[in-house]
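Run log // design_07
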């Protein structure tokens, strides 16, 4: 009669998870790099259309004006008197950022001019008005 001896379990008999973790980290880095971080004003705006509208690729400070006269910036409603301070704070985070005013088609033109004025008083010289490109 033969006696079978079993070898004692070795220390490295487990599954090596290092390659799987490498793949997960590479995928995580890929998704972080390819994700675009877009700041939104906070409300949906019905922008006017224009034939000369151009797409802006730089990082922008978006200010939305609703038809009711509400001003939204960075998903928060802001009073016109506090807009300058908020723009200065956002501008200090990104000195190259420009301001884009997204005024609703039914918003008051006077309020849009006041918003643009507050942005310029905050030190931003590049203020643009958002419009959707008109289909030819």
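design_07 sequence
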């Amino acid at each position: 009669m033969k006696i079978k001896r079993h070898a004692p379990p070795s220390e490295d008999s487990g599954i090596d998870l290092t390659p799987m973790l490498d793949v997960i980290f590479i995928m995580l880095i890929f998704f972080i790099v390819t994700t675009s971080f877009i700041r939104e004003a906070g409300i949906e705006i019905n922008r006017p259309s224009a034939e000369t509208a151009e797409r802006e690729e730089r990082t922008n400070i978006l200010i939305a004006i609703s038809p009711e006269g509400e001003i939204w910036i960075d998903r928060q409603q802001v009073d016109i008197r506090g807009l300058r301070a908020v723009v200065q704070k956002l501008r200090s985070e990104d000195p190259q950022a420009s301001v884009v005013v997204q005024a609703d088609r039914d918003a008051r033109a006077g309020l849009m001019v006041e918003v643009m004025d507050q942005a310029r008083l905050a030190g931003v010289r590049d203020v643009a008005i958002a419009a959707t490109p008109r289909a030819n």
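Residues 95 and 124 are 9 Å apart (CA to CA).
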